[in-house]
Automatic annotation (TrEMBL):
GO BP annotation list: regulation of DNA-templated transcription; response to amino acid
Oxidoreductase among keywords: no
Signal sequence, renumbered to the chain: none
UniProt GO cellular component terms: cytosol
UniProt keyword DNA-binding, yes or no: yes
Organism: Paracoccus tegillarcae
Protein's recorded name: AsnC family transcriptional regulator
Lineage: Bacteria, Pseudomonadati, Pseudomonadota, Alphaproteobacteria, Rhodobacterales
Length: 153
């Protein structure tokens, strides 16, 4: 981030909030010519700072309104146990995120479901079969107070 200036930061901020903004509109908002803006965006992409462009879906409108956070404690910390768990959890379609944690749990999963019965299905079909799991605790999100995908730049 050392070679990113204030204009790059503004570009990144704007693109995080509206990834479909045209290059002309983006250039106008950061006071650059369209070609100079395009070069900067291309450099940010080439440097891996801009990783992807995605469409963020409304999970309620696509039938996945239930958000569940699952804390998982493994039976051991050997590389084989961690690797087997991580390989298996990657293929569960309902898991949006998996984080290796410090603290009480080894992993924290972010899971979406259509309702509690659907989560029970996900649990039976996938979560209960994950290798190396000693304990699992699930917490249902009652309401999302705040959510963003934009990183402060």
């Amino acid at each position: 981030m050392d070679d990113i200036d204030a204009i790059d930061r503004r570009i990144l901020d704007l693109l995080q909030r509206d990834g479909r903004i045209s290059n002309a509109d983006l250039a106008a908002k950061v006071n650059l010519s369209a070609s100079a803006c395009h070069r900067r965006v291309r450099r940010l992409e080439d440097d891996g700072i801009i990783r992807d462009y995605v469409a963020l879906l409304d999970r309620k409108r696509v039938g996945r309104p239930t958000m569940v956070f699952v804390e998982i404690t493994l039976s051991g910390q050997a590389d084989e146990v961690l690797d087997a768990f991580e390989k298996a959890v990657r293929v569960i379609p309902d898991v949006l995120e998996c984080h290796l944690m410090s603290g009480a749990a080894d992993y924290l999963l972010k899971v979406v479901a259509s309702d509690t019965e659907d989560f029970a299905r996900i649990h039976r079909q996938y979560l209960a079969k994950l290798p190396g799991v000693a304990q699992m605790h699930s917490s249902f999100a009652l309401r999302t107070v705040f959510r963003t995908t934009a990183l402060p730049v």
